[in-house]
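Worked Example 4.2. Read the sequence first, then its structure tokens.
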Amino acid sequence: MSEGFNMSMRKFLKQVGVTSQQEIEALVRSGAVSGNTLTVTTTLTAEGTDLNHTVTGKIDLSDAGG
């Protein structure tokens, strides 16, 4: 893959990671989450394609301090 493609991909993934972390942290701070674990799911799609990739994971909140 080209360097331009790699840089563009990294920029997109960084934006996804940073903004997702900010949203999850805000949710936890708001007190809307109970328990010690938060299950999150993200789905990646690409306009004009049949891409539909879902990732689900658990976030440990036991040390969140929120």
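Now turn to a second chain, presented in exactly the same format:
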Amino acid sequence: MASDRPPLAEQTESAPMRLGVLTGGGDCPGLNAVIRAVVRREIKDYGGEVFGFHDGWRGVIENRGEELSVLRLRGTLPRGGTILGTSRETPYMVEGGCERVAETMADRELDGLIVIGGEGTLSCARSINDEGFAKVVGVPKTIDNDIGGTERTFGFDTAVSIATEAIDRLHTTAESHDRIMVVEVMGRHVGHIATWAGLAGGATMTLIPEQPFDIVEVCDALAKRHAAGKYASIVVVAEGALPIPGTLEVSEPAVDRYGHKVLGGIAHVVAGEIEQRTGFETRVTILGHTQRGGTPTAFDRVLCTRFGVGAVDAAHSGNFGHMVAINANQISSIPLADAVGEGLKFVPEQLWETANVFFP
């Protein structure tokens, strides 16, 4: 049956634009796939140009980067990291930084800026756009999947896949030695990775920031499990998981130069308590940055491609101050204020209840 949809040439009737693009915050599988899609869509379908800034917002402040072409992005679809480099620096951390952003936009003759980043980077993008320093379209990037307004952020599927594979491998070694294995995954303020990987990997229990834990209940549950003849257990812990106040002493983490708490190591605390209270041999595996490195999954490659195309289309539709999002498998754009203005997206109660079905 013939489609009623107009041909591509009719869908993309718009004057060519000259767009800037940057990647900010932590690296994430799929960044290059987004850049590739931005370049391909703007150059091939709109006849425009794309300039890539090096090292995130720092490159915009210092007016550093490179002209991007289809050839330059060839072979980058499966490549991890970002060819443009990234940093956590924002214009608001530098004296006159916002004004320098405006100067760079004018000097490079850019019509708009596509900002690929997480909650911090996109919050900055919102302010830069609203205060008139640059016209911005955001692309949500974070393995934590904690940005509002979109069902999924890219990098999350890859991180969950890596964590799940690790849990699968730990099952066999735990069973061989009758051990408890405590696996720490990323998740500063939310437990999406831990919850999904715990479910997919058949973890015994999962501890997440949204649900403070009681170490006594954790140990009692493991003791009952082992008393029933199940001698191997996997406990998945998000790096930001914390005990119920007053139930376990945890030292206050250090703060980095960007004001972020330096998390990591809660698994050692939990494992130590489990071994001391139960007598079961307990070992720790901290996955760390392996979750955000390497090649993106097929799902993330496709999502990144759709986000990159959607970001360019949003710019040509005049939807600056927006972020591309996916909901019900449809790409759209929503105001950045809606995405970052209402706080982080937490693990849904229904999903957490499903995970609890499999806890002892």
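Notes for the reader: The two ends are 54 Å apart (CA to CA). Residues 159-288 form a domain with the Rossmann fold fold (CATH 3.40.50.460).
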